[in-house]
Amino acid sequence: MARKPARVLVLGDCFGKGALQAIAAARAGASVTLITCFPDNERGRSHQKLLQYENVDCSRSIRRQKPRLTENDVNDRSPTIRECDVILVSLEIPMNTVLAALKHKRESSCTIVDADPMSSSGLPTAIYDYCRILIVNERQFRVIADEGVRAFNPTKFRQRFCFELSAPQNHRTYNCFSMCILVLRGSKGIANVNGDEPVTHLELTPPVTSVDRDRFCACAAAAWATNVKDTLKFAMIGAKGYSKQATIKALPYRDEIWTTYRSSKTLMSRTTAGLEERDGRRSQNS
Asked: What is the CATH number of the domain that holds 228?
């Protein structure tokens, strides 16, 4: 089922979601590069060693006194970004840095945006030009739906969703087949929103806590990179881990995920299947 791992690029904070997602993706079988900024002190050096021990490539990361990733940092690493097949980014780094990084990605790369934390003003329209999979919770989905962002038609989504969204006063209609939105609804499951297709509700044990969400995003990136047929099923199994603790010890390894994956009922997502099929056609034509 799994082929040669593609390269996964993680952009994030060296002590936060970025580091946790990088380790989770590496344990799930992906070849991972982390672009982050470590503080130039003993804590930063020891944490970098920990990430390298977990098979995360930190050679393109930065170390300086003020650990904040900037636009210049990612611009200087544009060749690394173009080489990666899957890009996983969370919004714990500045939005202008996120957008600067995504401008360098290849068209065929799969970009997974974990929209957490999201400000009350929502997301800039530009991010939808680069995003392939957007991961939000119910509150965050309501924010972007009410904005009438260019990625989808909020009116259609309001008609199909099982929870009520306030109707936007002004919105633009766009074809969003190139992007799907995964709405993490806690104990109520996951809603898979994709263009003009009906909303698909996935009821396999969903990610509930913020730690579950980090693991879910990382395992989704690893599944895509390693050509797992059912990306969402693999991600949801990996999201639960084997502990509620927000520690590295709680992150599952690929073999542990596969054990549950093989024993579970098939749960094929039409969205990920359609995107993977389209990407396959694109790679054959290129």
From this structure: 3.40.1190.20
